[in-house]
Amino acid sequence: TDVSRIDAVFDLDGLLTPEERDWQQRARTFARERILPVIDRDFEQAHFRRELIGELGAAGFLGMHLQAYGCAGAGAVSYGLACLELEAGDSGWRTFVSVQGSLAMSAIAKYGSEEQKQQWLPRMATGDAVGCFALTEPQGGSDPAAMRTVARRDGDDWVLDGDKRWIGLASIADVAVVWARVDDPAYGEGARAVRGFLVPTSTPGFAATPIAGKLSMRASVQCDVSLEAVRLPADAILPGARGLSGPFGCLNEARYGIVWGAMGAARSCLEAAIERSTSREVFGRPIGAAQLTQAKLADMFVELEKGILLALHLGRLKERGALTPAQISVGKLNSVREALAIAHQARTILGGDGITDAFPVMRHAANLESVRTYEGTDEIHQLILGRALTDLDAF
Ligand code: TGC
């Protein structure tokens, strides 16, 4: 197959442990057997296939990089490889795994009390409970410091009011990790600190409405969320998160998964282009025998290879506890930007048929527009790197 052709030239396997190769193979098989046969129809019908959640849990992919509480405890590279293979299926399914594992479960694992961890993590690892992560607001996602959602004290209770937007899985979630300003000097570093709350989605006043009309990530769910006088017990607050470093700590995890995941979408596009290059004849010979086509394939392959090696480098740093947010920005910016370029170049090789669902390329290209925007836009990551290089803040 063309993926084994890419694997053969690249030979990544020699850099991986047997355990990492095993996780990769299992995720590749999952994508091939459970996602690819249905994804074109699901994408067209904007259908989120809920029944796969339990299967992803049983396979160990939910919170797979977390320790204990029913989680697989896999290494950062194994998790990244799983993200890559799932996103070679569809960005929507890698996003599901990211929102559940890297955002909602990570928030509970990093900042939750022992009771909160025991209550939620084992059920989330199996997929019996779904989580979402409510940070972004309708006025824009790039500046969480401008958050308007508030949590105020009423006796021992907390009462939350506000609106969130683009919240993945919110309408099917059992629990929402909601970030809100706390207007109480007793909490956080001074008044109005940002804190996290675990909100069972059955709580009166919590409402999630799927966003319609998306031309990207159609096989997954993103929602508007409204919080109207959502009353929570005192122990709903995440005790370990104070200030914006709380949600940013989770975004780091999700951005890391994207560094790998986007390369999966890119690989899928390159595979389609290679297949077409050898099977489609124009001017009396396979189009892959034309130098222009080979140059395109070579450039796509080089960027894929560089992107995966960068992801692997970041993964090894993460395993040593040495990965910095600026390094994650290098990876997120590069992977998604190059994956989009690869998708667009692959489309040119496919000719007119490239715009149909006979190939996965337009679906990946459309999905990657979302991936480029969430978890920090290209521009946000450029500015994070600009600040790291100059010590000057240009936000
Ligand atoms: P600033 O206000 O100065 O810093 C706030 C505090 O946060 C700390 N911090 C980080 N900590 C850990 N990891 C990081 N990556 C961090 N970045 C900042 C910072 O040290 C400070 O801590 P403290 O203790 O001193 O208070 O913020 P900044 O100037 O550092 O950051 C500005 C900027 C623009 C980089 C930041 O606001 C940013 O990254 N904006 C983009 C936000 C973003 O990615 N939003 C998209 C979220 S995607 C989403 O919510 C959807 S989830 C997916 C789904 O549901 O489908």
TrEMBL record:
It catalyses: glutaryl-CoA + oxidized [electron-transfer flavoprotein] + 2 H(+) = (2E)-butenoyl-CoA + reduced [electron-transfer flavoprotein] + CO2. One of its GO terms (molecular function) is fatty-acyl-CoA binding. SUPFAM superfamilies: Acyl-CoA dehydrogenase C-terminal domain-like (SSF47203), Acyl-CoA dehydrogenase NM domain-like (SSF56645). Its EC number is 1.3.8.6. It comes from the Bacteria. PROSITE patterns: ACYL_COA_DH_1. Keywords: FAD, Flavoprotein, Oxidoreductase, Transit peptide. Gene3D superfamilies: Acyl-CoA dehydrogenase/oxidase, N-terminal domain (1.10.540.10), Butyryl-CoA Dehydrogenase, subunit A, domain 2 (2.40.110.10), Butyryl-CoA Dehydrogenase, subunit A, domain 3 (1.20.140.10). The keyword Translocase does not apply. Its cofactor is FAD. Residues 248-389 form the Acyl-CoA dehydrogenase/oxidase C-terminal domain. This is glutaryl-CoA dehydrogenase (ETF). It comes from Microbacterium azadirachtae.
